[in-house]
Amino acid sequence: MREQLGQIFRFGLVGAVNTGTFFGIYLLLHPWMPYFLAYTLAFLLAMVGSFFMNTYFTYRTRPTWKKFLLFPLTNVTNYVIQSAGLYALVTWAGMDTRIAPLVAAVVAIPFTYLLSRKILVPRGAPVGEPEPVRSTSGG
Hints:
Elements lengths: L1 H28 L5 H24 L6 H10 L1 H17 L7 H21 L19
């Protein structure tokens, strides 16, 4: 239980760094393109960073190509929640396009945690113990 709370705390730290990265990229792109395109590009770039921060720091597991390819697929739910939230906040609530992505991201946090843990932590792995690195050499 203590290790799982540690994971949640580390996930929150990674989320804060990732959100800052996402928001910084979004603000840099926003003046040169439509807000939704800037949002999408910032989301994709930040997701790559999130993958590596979550594998190494949050779940203390090793990254693999399989996990890397599955990680964005499971984040489709996160993207849909954030995108729908962004659209609703801007279109229906009249929220500023510079702030709305942050609000939408907060709503998606619990879903992202559960999905990323499912993908990045191997089945049957003890919670909190680093995943062993398998040797690829023949000897």
